[in-house]
Amino acid sequence: TGAVAFTGAHQAGIVTPAQDRLHFVAFDVITKDRDRLIRLLKEWTAAAARMTAGQDAGEIGAVAGIPEAPPDDTGEAIGLPPCALTITVGFGPTLFRGADGRDRFGLAARRPAALEPLPRFTGDTLDEALSGGDIGIQACANDPQVAVHAIRNLARIGMGTVSVRWSQLGFGRTSSTSTAQATPRNLFGFKDGTRNLKAEQEELLREHLWVQPGDGPDWMAGGSYLVTRKIRMLVETWDRSPLAEQETIIGRHKGSGAPLGLSDEFEEPDFTAVGADGEPLIPTTAHARLAHPDANKGARILRRGYNFVDGSDGLGRLNAGLFFIGYQRDPRTGFIPVQRSLAAQDEMNEYVRHVSSGLFACPPGVTGPDDHWGSALF
Ligand code: HEM
């Protein structure tokens, strides 16, 4: 229920031990006025600092203002503790150059090469209206009301300057980002996050998670690139497949989470092991094998996704899946090669559909009360 520090060298909400709930929003910037956008980023930063500390979004608060004016906080978090709320911001490729090629805010020359829009992957069934966005904001908390309150108030403050393009609720973290956390399970019933990057692996984080000085424009040093993918999971089809088949698709045992052929969750998978039939114990089409760094020139991603169930689809099926969230130093050596391997060969593709995609450059953390989101970019 406590508070997570808002300021720091890196933004909170990346290596912060994954909270239980998510509200993610992608905004389109609708103003053409650069100063107005910067003003909003300042207002947002102040509101985010207050809300992550468990305070109202505005200085007056939900009920202390004059009766003639709308309150500067919406009120539904009154009395709730901070619940480890983190608010993490990122800038999408279209902020730098719009789909029409226009450079609305004089930022085109500041766009990092790593923020090149993602390529199309085999099997993608993306809904454009649910994809992209000029600014992405991830709110994570251990209480859904706190996460929703945060996004709702940022949207309220942004009215007239930005508009909500899409948003996503998530429950049940599908990853652990700290060795202190137990590994949770995703909606296929498998442990997810076993071999994730973790907060304690400082050397690996430097190599694979945080943008280093010299990687690209200075304004991103200490930041990280965020890829979001809304992945529908065809759970009804999955639930009719035999346990042994589910395990060979993932490449791990469902109960323990151990690599096939082993018994401890955290043992290293042995990709050379063969079964009695002479075939590899972990098939070449298994998810955990294709996603492993050995199959992707050492690529590693910090995964921080959430389950979702958005009601049902009108065809008697749950509209359920995984809202994948992955942070990395550079998507060109992180998400892109991994997703290419998966898209080409993963046996799991029969059971999943990628319906939304987002890419955001998340700058380093704000340093204190005089700093604000995007201060080094604009
Ligand atoms: C590992 C499930 C999508 C990247 C795993 C594991 C499971 C899993 C059960 C094994 C446990 C672990 O090591 O964390 C799923 C499901 C997905 C999905 C159900 C879709 C609905 C993706 C996507 C990517 C990805 C889109 C990235 C492009 C990885 C990576 C690992 C992993 C990097 C760790 C591999 C290793 O280092 O051994 N996933 N995953 N997954 N997955 Fe996924």
The largest pleated sheet is described as: 9 strands, antiparallel
Average predicted local confidence, pLDDT: 97
Number of domains: 2
How widely separated are the two ends?
Answer: 35 Å
CATH-wise, what's the superfamily of the largest domain? Apc35880, domain 1
What is the CATH topology descriptor of the largest domain? Answer: Alpha-Beta Plaits
Give a verbal description of the structure.
This protein is of the alpha+beta class. The protein folds into two domains: 1-100 and 122-173, no CATH class; 189-361, Apc35880, domain 1 (Alpha-Beta Plaits). The chain has helices at residues 34-52, 93-96, 144-158, 202-208, 235-239, 243-250, 287-290, 335-345, and strands spanning 21-29, 86-91, 135-141, 162-173, 224-233, 302-303, 306-312, 318-328, 352-362. Strands 1, 2, 3, 4, 5, 6, 7, 8 and 9 form a nine-stranded antiparallel β-sheet that branches. The structure holds protoporphyrin IX containing FE (HEM). Protoporphyrin IX containing FE binds next to β5, α7, β8 and α8.
Secondary structure blueprint with pairings:
Blueprint: E1 21-29, H1 34-52, E2 86-91, H2 93-96, E3 135-141, H3 144-158, E4 162-173, H4 202-208, E5 224-233, H5 235-239, H6 243-250, H7 287-290, E6 302-303, E7 306-312, E8 318-328, H8 335-345, E9 352-362
Antiparallel strand pairs: 1-3, 1-4, 2-3, 4-7, 5-8, 5-9, 6-8, 7-8
Helix pairs in contact: 1-3
Bound molecules: protoporphyrin IX containing FE.
